[in-house]
Specification:
D-Maltodextrin-Binding Protein, domain 2, single chain, 5-stranded mixed sheet, alpha/beta, 6-stranded mixed sheet
């Protein structure tokens, strides 16, 4: 796949840009959200920092556990560290800036290929409807085949990158048939609206923002059936193994958070929308297809292996030719102790 750099940003008027700017400022500064607890509770609280993409609905169980006091009830003082992608959240963990991080499976796959000591403690979200390729009709994009020769915005090294390549493959196109423009997730929608790129491959809520900005000038191709989006919680192997009781407490709180997101959708959308700078109504349609469950499923291992083969084939991991045993990147003991029926990983 040919790579290009993005053109210099102009004065965009897309609504999402303002919300993302606020979030980016929060990431760059010291804005965090600490656990809400009762001042009358005499117990010392254990400190945990969780890095999460707070501009993504898949983080709802984390946000709910924080906002509803589930972390505090477990004796945890959790700080949510905001990011605009799961890749950035997992990087914060690897750089020892956070205890745990929430990401899609692609960053976990790359960490395993690079022999970085990541340990997944649970998957908390899944959806088959969050990823699309959106193009501009005025650039001649009306069918998947018309993507040939076009500049497509994507965040390289993320799940959006994997989805784009898988989508092109299904359309009998090669990554070399398009020019990939590497952009941060929050920069994709404004770039497409300005016309800096012809199309983009990304996830919600950026997909909805692009379609709303372009209106009848947009053409969208769904990735349903190509990729199931997930959000998983990971820490370094040392942190997870040395803080197993804290991990169990986090898991118990996340189980409650997941139930809230699943069983109280209106309240959950309103809460998540505050973090995302979106209205609850804007989240209503995709929310019906979201699954908020705390699990460790065998499908995660199979997905990581498929993605590793893709990374090797496309030379995304240097000259590495062998995939690791991703079972070594899964921490089973925590969820087995808290909710054993949620573990279907063969071990």
């Amino acid at each position: 796949m040919k790579r290009a750099t993005a053109s210099k940003e102009g004065n965009g008027s897309v609504r999402i840009a303002a919300g993302l700017l606020v979030l980016a400022m929060a990431v760059a500064g010291t804005v965090v959200w600490g656990t809400r607890t009762s001042s009358q509770d005499p117990r010392p609280l254990e400190q945990v920092i969780i890095a999460a993409n707070t501009f993504y609905a898949g983080s709802c169980p984390i946000l709910a556990a924080h906002e509803n006091g589930y972390f505090g009830a477990e004796g945890l003082n959790v700080t949510i560290q905001p990011h605009t992608s799961g890749k950035a959240a997992l990087d914060a963990v690897l750089e020892d800036k956070a205890s745990l991080g929430v990401s899609a499976d692609i960053p976990i796959m790359f960490a395993g290929m690079r022999q970085q000591p990541i340990a997944v403690i649970a998957t908390i979200f899944a959806s088959e409807s969050d990823y699309e390729v959106v193009g501009r009709k005025d650039r001649g994009i009306t069918t998947p085949a018309s993507l040939r020769g076009k500049r497509i915005g994507v965040s390289l090294g993320t799940s959006g990158h994997f989805v784009l390549d898988a989508f092109l493959n299904r359309q009998k196109l090669s990554p070399s048939d398009v020019t990939a423009v590497d952009l941060k997730p929050e920069d994709i929608a404004p770039a497409l609206a300005r016309g800096d790129i012809d199309a983009a491959a990304t996830w919600e809520p950026h997909v909805s923002a692009m379609k709303k900005a372009l209106g009848t000038n947009s053409t969208a191709f769904s990735a349903t059936g190509i990729y199931e989006a997930t959000s998983s919680v990971s820490g370094t192997r040392d942190y997870v193994e040395n803080n197993q009781e804290a991990v169990k407490k986090v898991l118990r709180a996340l189980i409650q958070g997941g139930r809230f997101c699943q069983d109280a959708p209106e309240q959950a959308r309103e809460m998540t929308g505050r973090f995302m700078k979106f209205s609850a109504e804007e989240l209503k349609e995709p929310w019906a297809l979201y699954r908020f469950r705390v699990v460790l499923d065998q499908s995660l291992l199979l997905t990581l292996e498929d993605e590793a083969r893709w990374a090797i084939k496309n030379g995304l991991v240097g000259d590495k030719k062998e995939m690791p045993n991703y079972l070594n990147n899964i921490h089973l003991d925590g969820l087995l102790a808290v909710m054993p029926r949620a573990v279907t990983v063969i071990h």
